[in-house]
Structures are given as C-alpha cells and as structure tokens.
C-alpha cells in the first residue's frame, strides 16, 4: 500500500515512556500495518528529539505556574458551609470575588460535600480567595493552653475582646491584663493593638474563650523584709 502526500494526517504525542494521545485522518480505504508501524517509529524519533531539546531548558516541571498565569482550583467543602460561603443575598461570595478578582462556582453537594471551583487571573487572588473560603468552610479553633497573637477589637469596662484567630474572639478580663491591679483597661490597651495572650479556658455559659496576658508576663519580685 502506498501513501502519498495528503492521504493521511497522523498526530502523535507522548513522553519518553510512551504515547499519551494520537489522532488520525485518512483519505484512503484502510491502512497497512507496516505504514502505521513506520509512522509510529518516525513519531517516536521526532518526539524524543523535541523532548531532548526541551530538557536543555527545563529538566523538570516547575512547582507552580508563574504568578500572573490564570489558574483554576477545586476544593471540597462541607454541605453546611455553602450558605456561609454564599452569604445573605450572595453578599459574601460577591465580596470575595470582587476583592480577589476571582470567579467562584459552587456545585451540588454529593454525600455531604460540595465542590467549589475558583478561577483567578493570578496567584495572589487565587490564594486569598481560597484562604477566605477555607476559613468559612473549616473555621479555626483555639486550644486551651496555647499562645496566640490577638488583636484588640473592643475595650469594655471589664476588660477587652481580642481576635486571636480569624473569626475567633476571646475575652481578656481586666484581672488578666497584668499582675498588678488594673482599674481601667484603657490604661493598658488600645484598639487595634496586637498582644501575645494565652488561652486559659472557656466560659461555660457563653462559650467565649478566656485569655490571659499576665500569664505570659514575669511575676514581679516580692518585696524584701530586710
């Protein structure tokens, strides 16, 4: 069987280990096995040559795309987190999309989990959108005995409320600000201030975490009797 120019269009792609895909258009009836064998052999020679030239520039895949390359990521979230991600009237998801310059789609839940697809034009926006979605779907928890850097959000007569994790507030009682007696929290704290604090428990009635600043401060020396 003789193949002339234009009778067959045969495309082969793959790696050094083998063929990954191929596509053929032919204008003749049937194809002799020997012709196919020769075509695959030629394709392998060409593929290995091209791969060899590519390896001179880049020997292995990069860990990530360049920062400004558009990308799509998919994550699974619990079904009961969908409402929080969307927000009232779609406010939350619209805010995330606008501020991170991303496009977010949420699929139907299957077996209690839903797929969230995020499209971004660059890495920075993708990372921030995924961070916000994960905080809603998998809210962080603070452990008793652990130390955190908290931000003062609100100062009240009996102490202050600090955000020790994204979306996690805790009460710093006025008695836990310092070892000495504190009359006014404002004398030691100001709004927006960052403090290192330790979680010392949880209020059984309100469920609010209780934190201490003085637990991380060195106790003052007792006055000498001399």
How would you characterize the overall build of this protein?
By secondary structure, this protein is of the alpha+beta class. It folds into 3 domains: 8-57, no CATH class; 71-137, Ribosomal Protein S8, Chain: A, domain 1; 147-216, OB fold (Dihydrolipoamide Acetyltransferase, E2P), CATH 2.40.50.140. Helices cover 24% and strands 33% of the residues. The protein is built from 4 helices and 10 strands. It has helices at 33-57, 82-86, 91-100, 123-137; strands at residues 8-15, 18-26, 71-78, 102-106, 113-120, 147-156, 159-165, 168-173, 194-202, 209-212. The chain has a 5-stranded mixed barrel with strand order 6-7-8-10-9. A 3-stranded antiparallel beta sheet has the order 3-5-4, with helices on one face. Strands 1-2 form a two-stranded antiparallel ribbon. Strand 7 (159-165) and strand 8 form a beta hairpin. The longest helix is centred in the first third of the chain and has 25 residues, at 33-57. The protein is elongated.
Q: Could you name the CATH class of the largest domain?
A: Mainly Beta
What ranges have pLDDT less than 50 throughout 5 or more consecutive residues?
none
Structure summary, number of beta strands: 10
Task: Please provide the ordered H/E string of secondary-structure elements.
Answer: EEHEHHEEHEEEEE
Compute the CA-based radius of gyration.
31 Å
The CATH homologous superfamily of the largest domain is named Nucleic acid-binding proteins
Mean pLDDT: 90
- CATH 2nd-level architecture of the largest domain: Beta Barrel
Number of domains: 3
CATH fold field value of the largest domain: OB fold (Dihydrolipoamide Acetyltransferase, E2P)
| Helix count, DSSP H or I runs of 4 or more residues | 4
Spatial shape: elongated
Q: Could you describe the largest sheet, including whether it forms a barrel?
A: 5 strands, mixed, barrel
Structural class: alpha+beta
| Biggest sheet strand line-up | 6-7-8-10-9
Measure the end-to-end span: 115 Å
Which strand-content bin applies to the residues?
A: 25-35%
Report helical residue fraction: 10-25%
